[in-house]
Amino acid sequence: MNLQLDTAIAKKFISNSQKIRVMTENWVARNLFCPICGKAMLHHYEANRPVADFCCENCNTDFELKSKSSANGELGKRIADGAYSTMIKRITSNNNPHFFFLTYYNYQVNNFVIIPNHFFTPAIIEKREPLSDNAQRSGWVGCNINIEKIPNSGKIYVVKNCTEIDHHIVVEKFRQTSFLKTSNIESREWILDIMNCINNIESEHFTLQNVYAFEKELQQKHPDNNFIKDKIRQQLQYLRDKGFIEFLSRGNYHKLK
Ligand SMILES: [Zn+2]
């Protein structure tokens, strides 16, 4: 995989954002494979298609590409995306594309991450301030994706710190997350919340008490639920059944992914 962006193809474009868009899309079209079926090439949609940028014609799956410059390769906290209302509608109707996130520096790709669409919930989408009266699209409200709220297993690296990750590992990691594909957004939110709690526990071994420590935080996110501890135990069981964690003994767990 050549990590260099082809600057020559963007010469005829004037604005920097257009140049970057053309170069990064070209890089994806040349280098990426489908993380679901492993097929080598992705089809690049015509420009300005509102929903997605790429499609795997083999398994009929859509992908959206976002990119940003990052000298140290850090993904950052947020990724700016399109209209807030459109994004929420896409998530709640389960027709969101999967997400490609590329960071680059000096026209070289330093990180490339796939975020499967089943990691998207309205909770990670933030409303931006409406555009000012002077703006061309005055009143338009865009959104940010808060990627800090996405558990680690939802950030599947294809390139990490300028190093290519083996294709089979990428496809396998993607497959391991497919248990999240549930039409029920609320239950998906709960699973992701507990996955995040587990991510935030530093050691590989942890106890039920370690997860109970997030009770207050979870209560704030789910004010209508009066049985947070019960919910925590239920989600831990679910994550065990899905191979995400292992039960060692009563109240003792081990992270698997
Ligand atoms: Zn495919």
Task: Describe the protein in words.
- The chain has 257 residues and is of the alpha+beta class.
- It has 2 domains: 7-178, PvuII Endonuclease, Chain A (3-Layer(aba) Sandwich), CATH 3.40.210.30; 185-255, Arc Repressor Mutant, subunit A, CATH 1.10.10.10.
- 30% of the residues lie in helices and 25% in strands.
- It is built from 7 helices and 13 strands.
- It has helices at residues 16-31, 84-92, 167-176, 185-200, 208-212, 215-221, 228-241, and strands at 43-44, 54-56, 61-69, 78-83, 98-105, 108-115, 125-127, 142-146, 156-160, 163-164, 205-207, 245-249, 252-255.
- The chain has a 7-stranded mixed sheet with strand order 1-2-3-5-6-9-10. The protein has a 3-stranded antiparallel sheet with strand order 4-8-7. Strands 11-13-12 form a 3-stranded antiparallel sheet.
- Strand 2 (54-56) and strand 3 form a beta hairpin.
- The protein is globular, with a radius of gyration of 20 Å.
- It starts with 15 loop residues before the first helix and ends with a strand.
- 26% of the residues are buried.
- The mean pLDDT is 92.
- Bound molecules: zinc ion.
- Residues 34, 36-37, 39, 56, 58-59, 61 line the site of zinc ion.
